[in-house]
Amino acid sequence: MKISADRADAFSSRPDAKARAVLVYGPDEGLVRERAQRLMRTVVSELNDPFRVADLVGSQVKNDPALLIDEAAALSMTGGRRVVRLRDADDGHTKAVQAFLESPPGDALVVVQAGDLAAKSSLRKLCESALNAAAIACYMDDGQAVELVIRDSLGKFGISIAPEALDLMASQLGSDRQVTRAEVEKLITYMGGPDARGLTVTLDDIQACVGDLSALSMDDMTLALADGDDSTAQAMLDRFVAEGQSMIPLLRSVTRHFLRLHLVSGALAHGKPAEQAVALLKPPLFFKTKPRFMTQIRRWPTQRITQVLDLLLDAEMDCKSTGAREHEIVSRVFLQISHASRAVKPTPSGQ
């Protein structure tokens, strides 16, 4: 069964009884973990229960393909249905999962976690087509999805959020669902937790509580890049790579910044005063970065911003469709952007 995006959360909370194995995959590792854990909790309440939860890693099953079936067939010493989770799965595990689905023993639920699988992936095709399996894709949250997670999470505590505060928080958060939830939980604690019912999160609250997000480091990288400071941007890029950060959110962070530059630059070109042009930005500029943004407006003419946006779009497509290393693709486009920045002399109008 192929589970559509609009059914993914509902299915994760209440999977079809016919599904003996569920593949949860995609580039959003946080959302993959969240949905996998939600599926597991439909069977067991405590995920650390050694009698009812078997946690396998991909290398174990590759070395011993029968291990998946053996764990699924095992009986719990304390009674109750069991869960078998297979982490770090890929197409090398297709045969093991297929062998389980052809004659599934016992009643255990098998949850398979994988990274971003292409449409031609054998593991993905198997789980999408099998009548006793399901596949759930977990893609990076877009702006609207991030806003929905923020509102819903706050709403459970009776907390509302002002539109400008929502805009700012959504822009500072990345696309990883687990990171988003962690930061919203921090905000709820800051607001007072259960005692915050009826309160409204303001722009000041976001700047005070969410001001140290790792996304701000991403913003620092983006600002350095638009300044033409390639050494700083590349150093931060290397750090993100070392931390295992996906390259797509980095590219989109840079793209958002240049889209904002493009909006203000276009408004200036049509005769709007600088303050009115900047006021068009939603969320508003963070006061600490506003001076650098205004300098960049004078540095980047509209036509050159458009060229940068084209470069970023091509880089994202290359990361998704080619076999080249994502780090090399992004490093190359960062070098092109920083060189372009230094090649343009700032002008009073930015045009």
Question: How is this structure best described in words?
Answer:
The protein has helices at 8-13, 29-41, 58-63, 67-73, 94-102, 122-129, 143-155, 163-172, 177-191, 203-209, 214-227, 230-242, 247-269, 274-278, 290-299, 302-321, 326-343, and strands at 2-3, 21-25, 53-57, 83-89, 109-114, 133-137, 160-161, 200-201. With 351 residues, the chain is α/β, with parallel strands linked by helices. A six-stranded parallel β-sheet has the order 1-6-2-5-4-3, sandwiched between helices. Helix 5 links the parallel strand 4 and strand 5 (109-114). Helix 7 packs parallel to helix 9 (177-191). It is globular, with a radius of gyration of 24 Å.
Using the CA coordinates, give the radius of gyration.
24 Å
H/E series, N to C?
Answer: EHEHEHHEHEHEHEHHEHHHHHHHH
The proportion of strand residues reads 5-15%
Taking the alpha carbons of the first and last residues, their distance comes to 54 Å
Strand order, largest beta sheet: 1-6-2-5-4-3
Largest sheet: 6 strands, parallel
What class, by secondary structure content?
Answer: alpha/beta
Q: In total, how many beta strands?
A: 8
**Which residue ranges are poorly predicted, with pLDDT under 50 across at least 5 consecutive positions?**
212-216
Mean pLDDT: 86
- Overall geometric form: globular
Q: How much helix, percentage-wise, in residues?
A: 55-70%
Count up the helices.
17
